[in-house]
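cache lookup: miss for this entity combination. No prior model stored, computing from scratch. Input as submitted by user K.M.:
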Amino acid sequence: MAMRDPVQGKVGRKDDMRFLLKQMMQIRAFEDKVFELLARDILKGASHVYAGQEAVAVGAMQAITDKDLITSTHRGHGHCLARGGTLKLMLAELCGKETGYCRGRGGSMHIADVNAGNLGATGIVAGNIPVATGAALACKMRNQGQVVLCFFGDGASNNGTFHESLNMAGVWKLPIVYIIENNLYGMSVSVKRACAVQDIATRSSAYAMDGVIVDGQRVLDVQATVAEAVKHAREGKGPMVVEAKTYRYRGHSRSDPRVYRTKEEEAYWHDHDPIKLFRELLAAQKVMTEAEMDAVEAEVDQEMAEAEKFTLDESAYPPAEAVFEDVYAGWIQGKYGLEPIQK
Amino acid sequence: MAQAFYREAIRDALAEEMRRDPRVFVMGEDVAIYGGAYSATKGLMEEFGEDRVRDTAISEAAIAGAAVGAAMAGMRPVAEIMYFDFMTIAMDQFVNQGGKNRYMFGGKTTVPMVLRTEGGAGRCIAAQHSQSLEAWFTHAPGVFVVAPATPADAKGLLKTCIRDDNPILFIEHKMLYGVKGEIPDGEHLVPLGKAAIRQEGSDLTIISYSRMANTCAEVGKKLAADGISAEVIDLRSLKPLDTRTILESVRKTGRVLLVSEACSNTNFVCEIAMRINEHAFDYLDAPIVRVCAADVPVPMSPTLEDAAIPNPDRIMEAARKLAKGEV
């Protein structure tokens, strides 16, 4: 399967391009900060960072509207930010603060903003593919023109739920776009060693849907490709698969020394950095000057500093007595077990 | 009051809720044209159409997960997993996604879904079609577990579950679909977390649920003929659990027999024993006794199946011993 023809060169309005650049810079700054806070042991728990893959989330999210839905993954910070999430509420959530998106109950792996159409991240690889498919079923039944973007990685495509779900979506022609972020590794095992096909989009043919491959390092290519798939889904023509070829810079998690890949491979991908490529494009097309782009970066750094201050200095941890809250709707742990919450 | 079979009670509950709320829909293997492996969805497709009564592929994980996603996106799905044994395949979706999303997301979502399934032994269909796995699910925070024994409770509880905002495992029993019972006329709702006292008594308390609750009720009548006064409690909901009704009964009788069709080891009734231990230990006049299934895969052969699963004689014997102070 060939990669989709590049659309680079066809840049849009300056404000729009600035927005894309800023979002990618925000995600990069956020992930750099996460790594720093992890190393300083200020941020607890596991964090799987999105640095290197920014163009996928940012480009794809441009293809949908506010009423549409997304599902995310354990490597989900980029999805939440690109969906409109704020650095402050994201960082607060990662640090387990009450002010975070999920009031500190979920952390890095379970960021959600359901009211904003982000049905959440999951710590189970491939765990959200059926959930996204069911959300697409709801969209179809409610008939309000909504579509679902379901993000997951190459590793998830080897799980049974991928196949069960794509089959279900294929049979019912659901309004969903499955976006495979093929970053070449499921933790340490390369696609070459784990996956019987190297172009995962080809798996779509087994479920009577079209698949397309796109350069996941080029944000405008991702945007254009996902937009076509979203149009297809919204018009009732059924689901599609978009495979974005990309790369994660950091290890799977903080304890990963990356012994399974070479420095040369990493250098190749850093040379194809999505922010670098987009800056080069905007400069070559004379959309933005280097100084203007540097100013965006400075703006992001300032916002990141504010988010850090908000999280570390101005946000509290949830009180210990809140531990039983919100396990159930309408019920809470009492002296003899679960009791209805008195209204 | 009208008489109805358990399977009709299930179907009527689904139909009434689908008429009441357009967000309610049914999906699962063989639920539409075939009407369900045990005929509990018969006629629904004819009334509500294929959009709201959906046959699925044999994809238990996708069925359960799709119910989670549809629920989060505004629908109220009732999905069927044909045999309780197949819930193992659906478990991650139900427990890890459905059960946890509300909590993980800071209380900012609800997952209003029901997974109907059907368990238990009695048809000689062996170890992968006869299990009672409720304890696996009562263990999981975020999900409710319900197991009605009578047609009236099946109807009233299913309607309540469909209206509830939590993910609920609704466990039917394959030997109950053909059981007939009285169903109250009109809108009939049974609350979650309320046990039913099937027979009042003062000598011992027998606690059970699902099909075994009916067996225990029969045993209770026979014990009465022998001059033993048994209080028989049908839990109906395992989670939320009606601990208060259990404790009140234990304080009255001082003797407790727990009966379950699931394997003995880490059976759900162990939790009941623990709650009695925590809240009513001083009222006990004898050790708590259990009659559960043997810790074996359910065997196919009828003699072995009967040997593995609690039967009226063994429950009766245990109750007599307990009442006579022979424990």
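stored under new cache key. Chain B has two domains: 2-183, 196-323.
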